[in-house]
Amino acid sequence: MRSEDPVRAADLPSIQEGKEVEMHGWVEDQRVLGSLLFMTLRDRTGVAQMVFNRSELGAAAFDEAATVPRQSYVLVSGRAKKSRSRTLPIEVSAGGMRVLGRAEHPLPLDPTGRVESGLDVRLDARPLDLRNPKVAAIFSIKASFLRACREYLESRGFFEVHTPRLIGAAAEGGAELFRLGYFGREACLAQSPQLYKEQLTLSLERVYEIGPYFRAEKMHTTRHLNEFLSLDIEAAAFGKREAMEELEGMLKGALGRLASENAGDFGKLGVGAEVPDYDFPVVTYGRALEEANEGGVAVKFGEDLDAEALKALARRHPGYYFLTDWPSDAKPFYIMPNERDPSLSESFDLMHGALELASGGERVSDRKALEARLAAKGLDPAGFEEHLKAFDWGMPRHAGWGFGVDRLVMEVTGSANIREAVLYPRDSVRLTP
């Protein structure tokens, strides 16, 4: 900490008694007891207690501190001293206060969380909502998770890349695209970095990317958004098994870090930090059909697993598990068919109970085979020439996955809606703030 930096609330207990300090923060509470005013000041790191003495400050300064609107942003200067509080061992004997940002009441919500507000009200006033320690804890966990994943992947030899969000062709050939004008041509918002990250294995071998992607699906559920944060990898010389091992290793390592480094955040949310200490079970698509049918949900081969089928599976597999060997017809053109049974694919989904967190597999690495897959999917290979030409330059065998960060954060924080795990969510009805 630089000498001129204000003291943060979390650092105040370590400040030597008698030291002159300055603190910035939002006024959370004021309580007058005779000639003393006790003010609770909150910043991102926690709360601190300021004590104002009328006889030392004078009536005007004391009354201003006592009447400044709650949630105003203030600077308090004073001297650190021991407190009688068990939870706040050091307080500040205030020598002065400046109001840097006055809060105009009534506020749209109570950021202390004492008065609950609906999710739409909270999202409409998101910056204020984030002063609630429980809300801020979700995003502290999210930031820590991303940092842990980055460090894990870097330690495994992966190279961080950033691919375009404005593209000229769909990565998966579907219609779920946001289209826009681009200097007289049509462009799309990227659904995923799929084709780019495959191409990059040609030279960089192991790549990863963390970024937002877009799907133009007009649905409104608690687990879908039109803009979402994805963590993707692609690696040369990987098959399905290696990609699954990398995903399991990353997730276990990151969740273990969260349990130790974000224990306070989980405590604010009232949830435990789940750290899987087991090998993720592998359930083939064929076995999943059997288990769904045994659970009273009829699913035929080739059909997707709907919500009821996934709930039946979750009753048997409540934790993390892989669903593998999906039908080839159910997967995108770039997924490799199984050599022994081409009706199945070298694919997998990572599940947590009934929720899909990631999808991946081995990719088709031969140009002729990829052109055949495109044609079989009703797509014109000519429209993918910019991608296909890379397969003439020594394309290695490769595999990878895309991981839904927002969904994982929703799960581990016990949030009921994915919008709680996104700062400014975008869905079919919300485009502001």
What's the topology here?
Elements: E1 20-33, E2 36-43, E3 46-53, H1 54-57, H2 59-67, E4 73-82, E5 90-101, H3 119-124, H4 126-129, H5 133-155, E6 159-160, E7 166-167, E8 179-182, E9 185-189, H6 194-200, E10 206-214, E11 227-236, H7 240-261, H8 263-269, E12 282-284, H9 285-294, H10 307-316, E13 320-324, E14 347-352, E15 355-362, H11 367-376, H12 385-388, E16 398-404, H13 405-412
Parallel strand pairs: 3-5, 6-10, 12-13
Antiparallel strand pairs: 1-2, 1-4, 2-3, 4-5, 7-9, 8-9, 10-11, 11-16, 13-14, 14-15, 15-16
Structure, described:
This protein starts with 19 loop residues before the first strand and ends in a 21-residue tail after the last helix. The protein has 13 helices and 16 strands. The protein has an 8-stranded mixed β-sheet with strand order 6-10-11-16-15-14-13-12, with helices on both faces. The model has no long low-confidence stretch (mean pLDDT about 95). With about 425 residues, the protein is of the alpha+beta class.
